[in-house]
Fold:
Amino acid sequence: MEYISIAQAAEKWGLSRRRVLALCSQGRIPGVSRLGTIWMIPNDAEKPADARIKSGKYIGYSAKYRNHDLEQSRKAKES
Structure:
């Protein structure tokens, strides 16, 4: 099996080397392995999907702040 480096994966996927390193550490790249201090990424590995929240519903967003934001937007519309 052919392997690529962090820098090669970063260039291939359009990410920073630091981001690819984080993805390796989190186990988000299938087939990745570590040999000493070097991450070995399979040449045919695909870029992991973006795991950021896109729905606009943030975890831990308190109802107290949500209600405050709604009141502020209502007041702005009335003015």
Remarks:
- The mean pLDDT is 85.
- The first strand starts at residue 3 and ends at 4.
- The helical segments are 6-13, 17-25, 63-78.
